[in-house]
Structures are given as structure tokens and as C-alpha cells.
Amino acid sequence: MRKEEILKSLQERFGADLVEIVDKSAKRVYIEIKPEALVKISLYIFKDLGARFNIASGMDTPHDMEILYHFTIERINLIISLRVKLPKEKPEIDSLAPHFEAANWIEREMQELLGIKFNGHPDMRRLLLPDEWPEGVYPLRRDYEEWDKTAIRDRGV
Amino acid sequence: MAKTIVPIGPYHPLQEEPEFFKLTVEGERVVAIDVHVGYNHRGIEKISEMKTFDQSVYTVERICGICSTSHPFACVQAVEDIILMEVPDRAKYIRTIIAEGERIHSHLLWLGLAGHFLGYNTVFMWAWKLREEILDVMEILSGNRNNYAMFTPGGVRRDIKAEDIPVVLKKVDSILPTLDMLKKAVMDDPVLHARTKGVGILTRDEAISFSALGPTARASGVAKDVRKDAPYAAYDQVDWKMIVTQNGDVFDKLAIRVLETFESVKIMKYCLTHLPGGEIKERIKNIPPGEGIGTHEAPRGEVFHYVRSDGTNRPVRHKIRAPTYMNLPTYKATIIGETISDATIILAAIDPCYCCTERLAVRDMKGKKLFNGEDLVRLSQEKTMQLKKKMGF
């Protein structure tokens, strides 16, 4: 299947769940979807289209909590990035980890760094942060303030 | 039989970063594994948001000490992807040369250590001696044995001088006979076969579910290589083979790395002899709001960088994914059911980087026995000795 056919089949299958398609270049496409449709669309891309799950990248934007799920389809050299926007008051989304192992770690990471809740994740322990890190403090959020006043840190340039 | 928990880590001799493995064993067999990471979390993604696009390239170069060119490579491609720019041809070739040189020395480093863990210290010495030649080559090309700082958005920072090329070619050629001998010694050794064949198998389906990368995936018959699938730099202009094997065991992962080294030598030599003329860098004036993705096939698998710009001179988000992030969880599939003396080589087979302090303690539940890293390596070497005796060597 070529890129145009993939986009067409996504529109046919999930037309109501797609919010916006940004066709950035021949190799990159960004598709914004409704959060509740994430699992079925990513499973279609992962299983039926035979894509590889690259990674997800979460981000705290001024308006919402945003996650991008990146998938690569090697045979046509295309990276599909599914964008979901979650409300800041209640960032919650269904987990992909029960469906494929590759999503396991990154969801744990986003949970602790951004405070996004992944419903149905099998193992929601911390991945990177130390044990003494307080609950409810998320270092990649915009409103993060340093809680450990004694720590010496490189403040960058 | 009673279950025993064997903690390995958080500092252990097979990993670059401190990691903690909790192996649950029944007698000699491993029945469960749990992995803890994060001991070395440096927050580079956050630091990168405080740097300009030019500076963040050097920040990400510090992520890994061995594949130090992989992260800058993916990072500059992500920045270039925001504005959809093409770099000059000469820069593409120089980038390829640096990346392949790094692959050669990284694979040789792994081969040497794998030999050491299995009790073949001769392999270790030969492989690391060859690696020195390549490090010398990198020093001639970039001025440094590691952390080359050759990359910048828009091209490369340093040109390759015409008078250096014959010297470099001679040095690269000089490793080939020894490499060939090493390949024969490694691939035809019956004891090595007994130690590594059928050990730590990652099946094709598991490799897909874990989205494994690089040699780890290619050993399981998943033919994925960014250099072939999404050609960048000069990889589509060189004739080279992607090495894929089907068994997914330690031997296949070893064989892939040895054979890939030959391909890398081939790519490097081609690029050096066909280096086009012209500029090495195109100036980038400013970076408009947008997002970009850059990928590069590092020695261990695909490196993935996502950069978002809001129109200022700093990224607002910089997501970094190293290959070991995806390859490490495959331990869950490979190590269960294997013996504890094979654990060392299975843990090493995905080629996690080795840099950190060597300190490891293995203790049984009552706390009577205390092993350290050397003991575990010794356990592995003893098994090879026993096999050698059994097979009449």
C-alpha cells in the first residue's frame, strides 16, 4: 500500500475519529485523532499495516496535554505520527501496552514525567525517577517548580 | 525447588548505564526477570530545551560514549526535517564516513567483550587491537578518538583533507586481513557454537511485539535497517548488503555484527574514494515553528529524535529515544528458561553500551555467597572450559 492509499483507508475506516491530517512531506504525516479512538487506530496501523512502533512523545503545551505516537512503515518509508490532545484537568487515555510490549516503558515514563494516566496499563511502577521523588510532582510539566531546594543543578545557558 | 532471587546491579559490568536486574532462579534456571532503570537519568531532554538548536547537538553527543555520533546525526536530521532542507553532497558523504567508522569500532568493541565473557581472551585482544586502528582513523578525520563534534544542522563542521584520504584508506585496509581471520575463528569454532547457538532466542513475533531494533531485530529475521528503509546521507548511493539471519539466538547476533563490520568497511571505503566536491555546510538562517523527526541507524539500532520549534532559537520539545530503550525489554523474552551461566552473554547480546563502573554482587537468599562481576564472568568462562574438555579440545 502506498501512502495515499493508507491515508484513504484510514479515512474510510475511521473518518469520524480523525480530526486533522497534516501531510508534511513524502516521508512524514501527522494525524490528529480523537483520544478515545487511539487503541483501534494504532492497532490497525501496527497489526494490519505492519508498522513498527517507534516511540511516543508527550508534551505539555499551553492549551492541552499532547501525545504523539510515532509509527514507521518501513517498506514505503513513511513515519505516521498520531497526535492526541488531552484536557489538562484530566489527562487520561487508554493504554497500548496490553496490545504490544513496545509501548510498555514509554507509557510508564510519560506517567511519571508528565502525569498522564494510562488506563489498563499492566505495570504502572516508576521507570526513571528515584524513589524519594514526591508523588504528584511532574518534571516535564510547564508549571514544574524545583521541590528540592538543596539540590545543585546545572541551570543551562 | 525453592526460588532464589539474584540481584545484578545497579552497577554491573555489562551495561553502560547502571541498571538493576532482578533474576528469579530455580536451581540453575532463570524463571523470571525484572529490570529497573533510571539510575543515570540526566534529564537531557529538558536540558536540550534550554539550549539553542546548534548547542543541543553537542549536548546529545554526550548521551553515549561509544555511539557518540548517532545522537547528533539523528538530532541534526530532525532539525533539518523541520525546514525540509537537503544538506550538500559532500556533507552527506562525510557524515556517512563518520557514522560507519563509529559502527566498525562499536561492533569490534562488542565482539571483544563477548569473547571475554565467553572465555576467549584472544578474541578480546585481537578485536580491541583492530579497534585502535579505527580510533586512529577517527582521530585523523575529526581530531578526536570519540565525541567527534562533526555534525551541525545544515552539514558538517570539518572537511576531510585530500592528503588524509590515502592514509585513512591504508589504515582501514590494514584491518581487513585480521578481521577476516577473526571472522573465521569466531564463526567456525565448535565450542563457540555450543555456547551461543540456541541460547537466548528472540522469536520473530516477539521481536515485532517489542519493536526490537538493529542487530537484535535483524538476528530474528526482521529485516529492518533505517539505512536501507529510509535512506539518508549517502547510504542510497553505495552498494551494500543488509545482513539478516533467522534464528534469533546469541550466535546470530554475534554473526550479524561481525558481517556488518565488513559492510561498514565497504561503505566507508566507497565514500572516501568517491567523495564529491563542494560545500560542506549550508547556513540555516532561522527555524520556523514546526516539528521534525530524525532517525539514524546507530550500531545498536535506530536512534529516534523528535524536535519541535516554536519559532525561537531553542526547541520547545526534544524527545530522544535510544535503541537500547526498545531492545532492553526483550530480556523478558530471551532470558527466561536459560541457565544463570548463560545470563551474562544473553544480557550482553543486545549490545547495551559498556562504560560504567564495574561492581556487581550476586548473593543467595541466606546471604552466604557473595559473587561479584568477575565471578559471574568466571562462571561463564568455566562453562566454556568444561565444554572444551567434553568436546576434546
TrEMBL record, chain A:
Reaction equation(s) it catalyzes: a quinone + NADH + 5 H(+)(in) = a quinol + NAD(+) + 4 H(+)(out)
UniProt KW keywords: NAD, Quinone, Translocase, Transport
Domain of life: Bacteria
Domain annotation NADH:ubiquinone oxidoreductase 30kDa subunit: ranges: 31-145
Enzyme Commission number, as recorded: 7.1.1.-
GO molecular function list: NADH dehydrogenase (ubiquinone) activity; oxidoreductase activity, acting on NAD(P)H; quinone binding
SUPFAM superfamilies tied to this protein: Nqo5-like
Pfam families cross-referenced by the UniProt entry: Complex1_30kDa (PF00329)
Similarity section: Belongs to the complex I 30 kDa subunit family.
Function: NDH-1 shuttles electrons from NADH, via FMN and iron-sulfur (Fe-S) centers, to quinones in the respiratory chain.
Classification via PANTHER family: NADH DEHYDROGENASE [UBIQUINONE] IRON-SULFUR PROTEIN 3, MITOCHONDRIAL, NADH DEHYDROGENASE UBIQUINONE IRON-SULFUR PROTEIN 3
Entry protein name: NADH-quinone oxidoreductase
TrEMBL record, chain B:
UniProt cofactor(s): Fe cation; Ni(2+)
Residues reported in the UniProt entry to bind Mg(2+): E45, I320
Gene3D superfamilies in UniProt: Cytochrome-c3 Hydrogenase, chain B
Binding site for Fe cation: C67, C356
Domain NADH-quinone oxidoreductase subunit D per the UniProt entry, residue ranges: 118-283, 286-359
InterPro entries: ComplexI_49kDa-like, NADH_Q_OxRdtase_suD, Ni-dep_hyd_lsu, Ni-dep_hyd_lsu_Ni_BS, NiFe-Hase_large
Record's signal peptide: none
Annotated Ni(2+) binding sites: C64, C67, C353
GO molecular function: ferredoxin hydrogenase activity; NAD binding; nickel cation binding; oxidoreductase activity, acting on NAD(P)H; quinone binding
Alphabetical keyword list: Iron, Magnesium, Metal-binding, Nickel, Oxidoreductase, Ubiquinone
Name of the protein: NADH:ubiquinone oxidoreductase
